[in-house]
Design a protein that fits this description.
Layout: E1 4-10, E2 17-20, E3 25-29, E4 36-37, E5 48-53, E6 56-61, E7 68-70, E8 73-75, E9 77-79, E10 85-88, E11 91-97, H1 104-107, E12 129-131, H2 149-175, H3 179-193, E13 198-204, E14 211-218, H4 232-241, E15 244-247, H5 260-264, E16 269-276, E17 281-289, H6 297-363, H7 366-391, H8 406-414
Helix pairs in contact: 2-3, 2-6, 3-6, 6-7
Length: about 425
């Protein structure tokens, strides 16, 4: 029987090995009662379940907040193989045969995609990615900071995860045209990859030129009732400079640290990127957390790339909405044209009836009045039915077909 073990390649207990022996079920999460527990706030209390049955090894996401990634792809359940990389919030685990000594750097190298698999490469210009100015050296991450060899292993795993996230965001941006659904999906993918506690998407209203919050996320669902407050200093910097910004420790930052929202929500790390459309900035995407140094330059580059994809997608969704509105107006115009002809025929019949009534009164011929009165009553009924149909026009209904006596229809038309 094959035995496996989990190697912690990132997070608390890095380098430790946890064996998976016999047929057993292992719950991994933040709760101390779990068989494998990590003291990390990005994990749910019970995050995932791994089941070993003979040589088979399966994994299942237990409705966690930050989800489960296997080899950079988000899944709800999957069958595991040797060398599979598991990402649970900030924790990264490697599946390997028990007792094997392998280089974690070699394990984390991203797989080369086959010819028929889409490859997403995104390298935003460096001048777009900036950090806060006039701040303490230890509070801000420089986008040009060189990577030490000790960080290279983590970078390889994060790079693969970021590419997978951008692939998913690109698919969402090209396939969803409902603006509310689009923005919420983009925030979902952002939270699945970036260790944020709060996230917001704000769009610029074309009429008032003011920012409006269109989507929001809290890692702690209890925070959904909290008032939304974002640093205006950060937003102004992003919109004025048209560039992304990263603050590693807002409390120690001389430029952004005194903002009311930063103090109110105890914000320590924050990132903000513009949503770039084809010709203009359409909004911003913002993420923050109460932990200092939680975000790094790779997170900022990913958020900047998401902002580019989201900006184009927002413009497409708005164009699609305008197109639907124009089609509805055109359909309404056709409906009004048809109604005008119908009402004109009814009014013509009523005018003729009035003339005939006047002549019948002069001639004192009650038989003509009786005949014309029936025509007037039918015309009045048609007007009443038409008004009711117009009131129900906005409701989607199936046609109600009924048998109709053709002789009566022809008789009414002749009269």
């Amino acid at each position: 029987m094959t035995t496996y073990e989990l190697l912690v390649v990132k997070g608390p207990g890095k380098g430790q090995v946890y064996p998976l022996e016999g047929d057993e079920e292992v719950i991994i999460g933040r709760d101390p009662s779990c068989q494998l527990s990590f003291d990390d706030r990005t994990l749910s209390r019970q995050h995932i379940k791994i089941v070993k049955d003979g040589d088979s090894l399966t994994i299942e996401d237990l409705d966690s907040v930050n989800g489960l990634l296997v080899n950079g792809m988000r899944v709800s359940s999957a069958e595991l193989k040797v060398d599979d990389q598991l990402t649970l919030g900030n924790i990264e685990l490697l599946v390997r045969p028990a007792g094997e000594k392998a280089s974690p750097l070699e394990r984390l190298a991203p797989p080369v995609p086959s010819a028929d698999e889409p490859t997403l490469l995104h390298q935003p210009p460096a001048e777009r990615l900036v950090t806060s100015e006039d701040s303490k050296p230890d509070s801000v991450m420089s986008i040009t900071q060189s990577l030490s060899s000790s960080k290279l292993m983590d970078l390889l795993g994060r790079s693969h995860q970021s590419l997978a996230a951008m692939y998913r965001v690109t698919r969402i941006a090209s396939s969803i045209f409902d603006l509310d659904v689009l923005l919420n999906k983009i925030l979902d993918e952002t939270f699945a990859t970036i260790r944020a506690e709060r996230g917001f998407v704000l769009l610029i209203d074309p009429n008032s030129d003011q920012l409006e919050i269109k989507a929001s996320r809290w890692q702690n669902k209890e925070g959904l009732d909290h008032n939304v407050s974002i640093s205006q200093n950060i937003i102004s910097h992003v919109l004025d400079k048209k560039e992304s910004v990263l603050i590693a420790d807002a409390m120690a930052d001389s430029k952004f640290g005194l903002a009311e929202s930063v103090v109110l929500h105890n914000i320590r790390s924050a990132m903000c990127s513009p949503l770039r459309g084809r010709t203009r900035i359409v909004g911003i995407i913002h993420a923050d957390t109460t932990g200092a140094g939680e975000f790094n330059q790779e997170d900022l580059m990913l958020l900047d790339a998401i902002g580019n994809a989201a900006g184009t997608a927002v413009e497409n969704a708005q164009l699609y909405k305008d197109k639907i509105q124009n089609e509805r107006l055109a359909a309404m115009g056709q409906a009004i044209s048809g109604l005008s002809h119908y009402i004109k025929n009814i009014v013509a019949a009523m005018d003729t009836s009035h003339t005939m009534v006047e002549k019948a009164l002069v001639a004192e011929d009650l038989s003509i009045i009786d005949r014309v009165w029936k025509i007037l009553r039918r015309s009045n009924q048609r007007i009443s039915n038409l008004v009711l149909d117009m009131l129900a026009y906005s409701k989607e209904r199936k046609p109600d077909t009924q048998p109709c006596p053709l002789n009566d229809v022809c008789k009414e038309a002749a009269e």
